[in-house]
Amino acid sequence: MSYTCFDVSIENKIAHIVMNRPEKRNSMIAEFWTELPEIIRDIDDNSKARVIVLSSTGPVFSAGIDLGMFSANNGIGGDKNIPTYGAAFQQQVLRLQDSFNAIEDCRIPVLAAIQGGCYGGGVDLITACDMRYGTEDSFITIYEIIVGMTADVGTFPRILNHLPEGLVRELAYTGRKMHANEAHDKGLFNEVYEDHETMLKSVMEIAKDIAEKPPLAVYGCKRAITYGRDHSTKDALENIAIWNMSMLIPSEMMEAMQAKGQKRPGNFSDLPKR
Q1: Which DSSP helix (H) or strand (E) runs through 165?
Q2: CATH superfamily of 6-211
Q3: Which residues constitute the signal peptide according to the record (predicted)?
Q4: Residue numbers annotated as active site
Q5: What is the pLDDT of residues 169-206, one digit of tens each?
């Protein structure tokens, strides 16, 4: 299937989703918000891969939301029937939020590989991912303040899981750039690489390592980490006990141990389709 904003390939249980509009700085036009959750949910629901790598093309990872979507003459997304204010605006923002919720809600890990600038909506996007990797020339900027907006598609509730509150406030109030080394030092980026090619090669190796692990156990880890982040320790402990009580498969555990002992790849079942 072809998409306006993305190229999608799947190989060795790894799905690679690439933003493919470098001439437009990979800005997030109306089609972006429909295509991304469709791609993510198709991969997840149909168990097409065990890991997703999300990357981009050109010198800029993403310029963020295409401001043409908020034109006073066109309404949101170019639809004159959806005004740029009021209840209709709220409903449209909730739809945009759902596009990135699809990343956090999917059962498999999503790794973001970031080159160059990551502006506004791009920050909303990468903070919804499980891990983030950057090139030395990459940076993030909560750019909405520069254009008189408040970020509303996911940055604030998610970036606070990775950065101290005072630093988030500084980034939000000023719109300054946080460059790759600072993002790594503060814990937002897992690693920083010399260039795009080196980064993608390394991220694909990490994805390969994850894809070789038991998919149900990886799903359990993702679910438990997200649940533990959003709940008390007591609730999280009870939740993981119930999860393992319901989901542990002895044959998968035995295969994992035998594969390790025999120094061979494990033969694990994919997640069930849903």
Answers
A1: helix 165-174
A2: 2-enoyl-CoA Hydratase; Chain A, domain 1 (3.90.226.10)
A3: none
A4: 65, 121, 124, 144, 152
A5: 999 999 999 999 999 999 999 999 999 999 999 999 99
